[in-house]
Amino acid sequence: MGSLTVFCYFLFSYIKVCICLRIVGISVPTLKQRGESSTLTCDYDLEGGRLYSVKWYRDNEEFYRYMPRLRPPQHAHKLDGVKVDLEKSTARRVHLRELTLKSRGLYRCEVSEEAPSFHSAQAEAFMEVYYFPRETPRITGHERAYQLKEPLDVNCSSAKSFPAPDLQWLIDGQKITDRSWLIAFGAKPAPQGLLVSTLGLRAPTRQRMKLKCVATIGTHRRERTVVIEINSSSWNKSFSLLIMITLNIVCVKIS
Ligand SMILES: *[C@@H]1O[C@H](CO)[C@@H](O)[C@H](O)[C@H]1NC(C)=O
Ligand SMILES: *[C@@H]1O[C@H](CO)[C@@H](O)[C@H](O)[C@H]1NC(C)=O
Ligand SMILES: *[C@@H]1O[C@H](CO)[C@@H](O)[C@H](O)[C@H]1NC(C)=O
Asked: Cellular location of this protein (predicted)?
């Protein structure tokens, strides 16, 4: 009998959780640039219950709480990379200023109701913080004089960024997908937690080639184009030099 009462009570409270409080949605920007600010929102429906607290966590560490019974109702905890702007934060949103690479993480909001229910609900979402300077990627190995039929040996390196940018090579507007032409050197660490991606290109040469390297992070892109011209002018030069020398010898002999 007693266990049935307990069971009914739990069933009842479980149903009440579903009716009384639910998170309608959490909205956390998925990709933000270092230095920007960001507004995170947590939408909930109390369905007649009374709000006890809204707490925000980054990677399980609390950084903001809103409790309507307290004066003031807001409180922010210091966390590396999390600067709360209290004036722009409310019971349903928290505004973060001057994001750093340390601001990235899993953000969770937790909403609780007052007594007697004390029901709570939570939702979470990840925010990535990137740094992508205006600098275009650097191409190396194209400066040397290539001979026709000598394979191209060039590299493209991104500027120091975070996360590691994706790189892509295009020859005369054609995206290179042939893996045997590409050498992925991976991402190398740089100061301040940044990364440099490098992608090599080993392709057959043509008389004139327009090489483009594109670096992307999400929808952001930086690109650089170089033109390689392979001509036989050097060979022509030595050829004409040879002719001149021969002519000179002939002239000397004649005179
Ligand atoms: C390309 O990068 C690799 C790895 O950093 C390096 O060993 C190689 O010399 C580079 N080649 C050119 C042409 O820059
Ligand atoms: C050959 O290369 C030289 C410089 O290396 C350039 O000035 C010249 O225009 C080129 N000739 C052709 C036909 O592309
Ligand atoms: C010398 O250069 C010209 C273009 O500048 C080219 O058309 C010609 O074929 C070259 N001559 C030789 C012998 O390679």
From this structure: Membrane
Contact 74, 93 (CB under 8 A): no
- Best residue for ligand 3 mutational test, from 147, 149, 208, 231 (most atoms within 8 Å of Cβ): 231
Ligand 1, residue 154: give the atom nearest the CA: 13
As for how many domains the chain has, the answer is 2
Quickly count helices (H) and strands (E) in the chain.
Answer: 2, 18
* pLDDT < 50 regions, the chain: 1, 8, 11, 15-17
Q: 202: domain CATH number? A: 2.60.40.10
| 118 and 184 part of one domain | no
Residue 116 sits in the same domain as residue 147: no
Q: How far is the CA of 145 from the centre of ligand 1 (A)?
A: 17
Is there a single domain that holds both residue 26 and residue 94?
yes
**pLDDT given for residue 10 in this prediction:** 53
CA distance 180 to 215: 20
Report yes or no on whether pTM surpasses 0.85. Answer: no
